[in-house]
Amino acid sequence: MKQQQDTGIADGHGVSGSGDGQPAADGVRKPRSARRKRRALLWVIFVAFDLALVLALAILLGGLMLAGRDLPAPDWVAERAGEVLSQGLGGGQVEIGEVTLRLEHRALPEVAFEAVRVTAPNGADLAEIPRLGVSLDKSALLQRRVQPKVLTLDGAAVRLRRKVDGSLDLGFGGGMGTARLGSVEEALGVVRRTLALPGIAPIKRIDLRGLDLEFSDERAGEVWRVRDGNLLVEQDGGALSAAVDFDMPKQGDGDAETDATVALRLSIGEAGAGAQVSALVKNVPARDIAAQAPALSWLKPLDAEVSGALITGLDEDGRMEPLNGTLEIGSGVFQPEAAAQPIPFDGARAYFGYRPREEKLTFQELAFSAPDGSFTATGHAYLDGMETGWPEALVGQFQFTDVRLDPPGFLPRPAHFDGGAVDLKVSLDPFEAKLGQIVLTTSDPEAGEAAGLSRLEGSGRVTADGGGWHVALDLGVDQIEAGSLMALWPFAMAPRTRDWIDRNLIGGVVENASAGLRLDQGARPDLAVTFEFRDAEVRALQSLPTITKASGYASTGRGQFALSLDAGRVVPPQGGPLDLAGSVFKVMDMTTNPRIAEIEWHSSSSVTAALSLLDQEPFRFLQKAGQPVTLAEGRAALDGTIAFPMKRGIRGPDVDFDIAGDLTGISSEQAVPGRQLVSDRLDLVARPVGLTIAGEAALDGVPLDGIFDLPLGTATGSRPVNVGGTIRIGGDFVRAFGIGLPEGSVTGAGPARFTVELPAGAPPLFSLESSLEGVGLALSAVGWSLPEAGEGSLSVSGRLGANPAVDALRLDAAGLLAEGRVSLAEGGGLDRAEFQRVSLGGWLDAPVTLLGRGPGLSPAIAISGGQIDLRRARAAGGGGGGGSSAGRTPISLALDRLRISDSLSLAPFRGELTSAGGLTGSFSGNVNGAAPVAGTVRPGRGGAAALRVQSENAGAVFKAAGIFRQAEGGSMTLSLDPRAETGEYDGQLAVSDVRVRSASGLAALANAISLVGLIDELNGSGIVFSDVEAAFRLTPSYVQVTRSSGVGPSLGITMEGVYDLAGGILDMQGVFSPVYMVNSIGSIFTRRGEGLFGVTYRMRGPASNPSVEVNPLSALTPGMFRDLFRAPPPTPRNGG
């Protein structure tokens, strides 16, 4: 519990505080020794006032006579005063050397105590005061009151100690004794309470003259001593002001131009109003200032004199208010450690503020100037690690507004930047500066012109310890002219690499350049440089063309150098540029002599350009082989190594190379004159012994596999007379050699043996033979194909060159035998392919001519004479698969015979058809050479032809086909749709107005049921059927009628069953409905052709004279119940 303050003291005087061992008024327990020391000092002063009063009264009258003179008091006065003063020290002693009194007419009376010494009971010195003067208030004396007004201490020695925790101890004189003041706020409380004591409160001014101050800072580990300082304390009511002025001794050998001075001002308002503190310094060492406050700790690494002003305050609780400062720093050195080499600078300036609650420094301006450069910046920094009351580091961000870089011997002219920023953390003990990021920019193109700079970036770490400086710095430049790059490269660092880049990197722009510097004081610097470049010229080998439009990346470090190209090209005499993207020039050891350079070669170019480059010094490959550099066209992607010594006058034997690559899109008309040799990809290998090209190629589109070997070092100019090997035939072969087969008629690919003869002055001749293994052939227009797994034989011979031709072609495979020749149209493509005979699968045996119709169109087919057998066509055409449609192929047929079934054919046959997934078109012919018909054909099931046949004389068609010889006249429409079974059709027959005469079957049927009139009609004018319909199945051997009916005025009849075409035997059944015109009334309950009452029948035997069986009782069965008694229709299996 806070105790009430005790203001009473012995003999009428007191000291602020409570009894020994009790908490102080502010709640903070103070050590007894500290309270005793402070109380002893106050005791001496208070009793001195009382003694001064006694002396003043004793000599008042005498003093009037001795005005203006010092009146010494007798010795016993000093002794007695010492005894009186010692009584309040609890065993301590006060010794006074002399007491004097001085009166002036116009000045305040003054009592002076000379050589005052205070010791503790144990003999320890508590205070030494050379002279203590007390000036009395005249007006108070006239009122018979002794009241001190001015207190003067001359030659006092004050010891002030700041402990690590920031608390203060105070001591007087040369003794070791000190009084604990506590923290700043506690010290201010002591001052306020002391000045409020009755004995002190009347004092208006306390003046310490000739003050010797010793300030010991345990936190900074420093001790400062100043002499002949002045301290003036004035109070007016509750307000207090203090001023301290002193000169600091010269540092070092005393060569400083002026002494350092310090002026401190303290202004304390009335109780609870806080305090204002200001300081003026001039020529004070930066490190001395840095040790006084955390906000000034950043000055510690500087060895220079500082002048400026600092202003701050304390709030009513004794806490520090924001600090504002202006500092001018003179020339000096930057040296955080004694072992670190000093870095000189010309001066600096700082306008800043500090917010203690945020522990934040804000720099309104920070300017620095040195021989190596200068900058002006603004920013802020936080004090890091303030747990102990003193920062371990500063973490800040600064923005630059003016930066000049001018390291001696580094840049040809200074580089200026008008903007930038830096993030950093500076640790103070030991010193370490971490640059998280530093960026310098300029918005004025001319500002960085000196070094070609517009942006500089960096990061790094700088430390100083007992070994000196340690630097790890990474710098980056966003863009710089390549010619100015050397201006950023120190001459002494990697000089050979620097020299090579200077001579061989010509023009262009360098971007994203970075330099990594690792430096330990006393050791050789380690520099690693990397940079990107563009629009530059690079010279890799003196005898080769310069690389132009180069861009890429270069790096050097630890005695090595590498330059990589992301883009760049070399332009040889012929063939256009070579793209060298990905190539690398490197030197693994820059210290050897001669240095060996190695080029990791990666190029992409035309083949001509690659050969032209390989024909330059020191290679001369093509000249030595007697070949032109225009040997082939295409693209060349080359990879390999080229090694050579970095010296002047390199010759061919000095260069070692091993180049391999891909040649793509190759085209050559010189390898085989008159023909084009092409390849998607060939392998090239170039070594000092020779050049080889190998791989799969195509001659006029025909795949082949071969090797081209070009020996080096000879000039014979020899070349192969022929090329032989294996060639793969397929669709490309057909097109390339102009065979003229329909597109898609050849699939797959298979090997063939070929030879190409190259007679001098004549077109090359070729021949080819193949077993067709792996080759699929198809003639979709005629339904023939050879599967790729099939076998056969093919032989082709002809001429290459400007006018190719196939003189002979023979194909024997999968039932097809074709022999002929092919002529090509002017400009290429098929003109005419004539085959004297084409035999195919037993269904085609005729001469065939293919007529070209132009690019992209299948040739027209013309067949004159011969025959086609549709019975076998589908079976032959469905066997191989693998063929693709040849498009809408026109087919013109003028056949001797088109056989449909064993007993049915059209002879002669004319047709104009197209083939597009099957046959489509129109035709005409005579049924079995007798009855003319016309019709259309379309693709049916399984690719077989579906027919629609029409005739205006149905009776003649039935008679010619051998189906029904007793019919006359009538119109007919017959549809035949192929079935899945070979040679079988589903048929639909519609006949109108046909007359039947002398039909033995009908006559027998009419006779069986005793219809005499119907028999007479049948044998006479005949029976007319106005409408006949039938659905049937036609096979090569029989016709199966599944449903048929015929109706007319006299008769209605239905029929179903089987008719054997080969034997003329029938087996039919049905219903016979006489007088159909009347009987048909009940047909709504029966089948078509059957009346309400009808007679069932069955007819068997030869069609010319069948036997008839009837069931008379069936006439009694109404038609609606007739199906209950109807027998199943005859079928080929059970029908006779």
From TrEMBL:
Keywords: Membrane, Transmembrane, Transmembrane helix. It comes from the Bacteria. The chain crosses the membrane at residues 40-66. Residues 1-31 are annotated as: Disordered. This is AsmA-like C-terminal region.
